[in-house]
Amino acid sequence: MTLTEELIPTERRLLFNKLADRLETAYNLSRKVVSFQANKDEPVYRWFKYKEGFSSALVKYFLTEYSIEPGKLLDPFAGTGTTLFAGQELGWQTYGIELLPVGVFVMRTREALNGIDTDKFVATTKEIWIELARMDEYDIHIKHITITNDAFPDETEVLLNKYLTYCSTVRDEKIQTVLRFAAFSVLEEISYTRKDGQYLRWDYRSKRNLPGKPFDIGKIYPLEEALKRKLSQIISDISGNATDSLFAQFAEQPSMRHPAHITEGSCLEVLPAFEDKFFDFIITSPPYCNRYDYTRTYALELVFLGQDSNQVRNLRQSMLSCTVENKEKREYLSQLYTSIGRHESFEEVMGAYASCAAMTEVNAILDELNMLNKLNNNNIPRMVKNYFLELCFVIYEMARITISGGYCVMVNDNVRYGGEEIPVDLILSEFAEIFGFHINKIFVLPKGKGNSSQQMGNYGRTEVRKCVYVWQKR
Ligand SMILES: C[S@@+](CC[C@H](N)C(=O)[O-])C[C@H]1O[C@@H](n2cnc3c(N)ncnc32)[C@H](O)[C@@H]1O
User: How confident is the prediction along the chain (474 residues), in pLDDT tens digits per residue?
Assistant: First the structure.
């Protein structure tokens, strides 16, 4: 047991002791495999880097290790659809729920690739630049919101609007989708911004009045250069020539592939609509409890997809609570369950949440730290409380809709606030156990460089656990 574990106060300590024999360092699951890194050079995945994603290798590993034959596979936090598309390749019927239009657009683009006329697509991409040079008027304009105003150099913005106007004239819907997607996936590199977790960072060359030290993002690409590169990457991946192309992936057994079922919305609302024991396998990774704001990080992509400021604000509130801005969803969940005639489920989940002593302890400690001004934001206790409460509902539903003997694999990180480690892995596993899962394993990723003695000396703390949980429905 490490020094930190010895010092963990009582309830978390007891829970740790209860589940200690399931914790196992997984030397075969590197950080690379668990993160998006392992995908970054793979065809299609490399078109748009969703850094919050995990790798297709991880999904395939669990599906083949824990299952004999393909059935129905779900990801309630589908992101850009790694679970769905990796499962599809292995013959699974896949279902994904995703709230952010960004991930939904990527998934729909991947679906549009099925049966796309590659020759026609290539021919269309050759016309684009001639058509754009001829275009004086354009009727599509990106409608910015406050946090994206002036994100592009003026000439880039004009060309982007012309390009979108051109796309709207392309009659073949699949080709139109992939052309729009090409622009969507270069937005960051043609802009003055960089994604930075809680917000966008702005380059000193933008028109904005920026406080603090000037930030230099390096080359800002002209739209034409970025788009041409992206389109040629797409063409190479969808044409039959490259050995690792999509075409090669499916050429041998195209009949194995079932269309992915993609639902845009909150899994808090969508999961209750599935019938009992519908799924054989769930592989997922919810947002982490780390204040990461998807709606600010992906603000450019959201306005590109037509979201206005109200819609972005609503999205931020509907997301699983993981930022200090999220308000409580208790009343909304109560009404939701009442409206579908399952108020007793609501009460059951609330009861399970309240019965988890480690959860109560974490909430009490965070409230106390807040009173002592030891947290760097007053809303951290609310965020943590609601993060777990909402996941408690998700886990309840996941247990209900998984067949007996089926698996749920979840990737998540523990977090620390005000110096207190919050054992996300243990608390969520406790919920899972209450709702009928057996906790098979909590695979702990080998510690990264953050745990070197030098780093520990610097920060005086060990790294929090990053884990993959394997739960099996009893
Ligand atoms: C860690 S990412 C998952 C990434 C995914 N595994 C992949 O490989 O692309 C978590 C996802 O949950 C989504 N999300 C957050 N709240 C949600 C909700 N209430 N319902 C559905 N999806 C939600 C986020 O938009 C984000 O895409």
Answer: 454 555 666 999 999 999 999 999 999 887 778 877 878 778 888 999 999 999 999 999 999 999 989 999 999 999 999 999 999 999 999 999 999 999 999 999 999 998 899 999 999 999 999 999 999 999 999 999 999 999 999 999 999 999 999 999 999 999 999 999 999 999 999 999 999 877 899 999 999 999 889 999 999 999 999 999 999 999 999 986 555 555 555 444 555 689 999 999 999 999 999 999 999 999 999 999 999 999 999 999 999 999 999 999 999 999 999 999 999 999 999 999 999 999 999 999 999 999 999 999 999 999 999 999 999 999 999 999 999 999 999 999 999 999 999 999 999 999 999 999 999 999 999 999 999 999 999 999 997 654 444 444 444 467 899 999 999 999
| Rounded Cα gap, residues 101 and 440, in angstroms | 34
Q: Is 208 left (phi over 0), alpha (psi -120 to 50) or beta?
A: beta
Residue nearest to atom 20 of ligand 1 (CA): 266
Which amino acid residue places its CA nearest to atom 8 of ligand 1? 53
All structural domains of the chain with their residue ranges: 3-113+257-455+464-473, 118-224
Q: Which of 46, 75, 99, 298 to mutate to test the pocket of ligand 1 (most atoms within 8 A of CB)?
A: 99
Report field, pTM of the whole predicted structure over 0.90: yes
100 lines ligand 1 (CB under 6 A): yes
Q: How is 123-186 classified by DSSP, letter by letter?
A: HHHHHHHHHHHH-----------GGGTT-S-HHHHHHHHHHHHHHHH---HHHHHHHHHHHHTT
Torsion on CA atoms 90, 95, 97, 102, rounded to nearest 10 = 50
**Domain 3-113+257-455+464-473, architecture per CATH:** 3-Layer(aba) Sandwich (3.40)
Q: How many angstroms separate the alpha carbon of residue 411 from the centre of ligand 1?
A: 12
Write the burial class of residue 280 (CB in 10 Å: 0-12 exposed, 13-18 middle, 19+ buried).
Answer: buried
Q: Are 432 and 471 in contact (CB under 8 A)?
A: yes
Closest ligand 1 atom number to CA of residue 76: 21
Q: Which residues contact 415 (CB under 8 A, 6 or more apart)?
A: 288, 289, 290, 421, 422, 424, 464
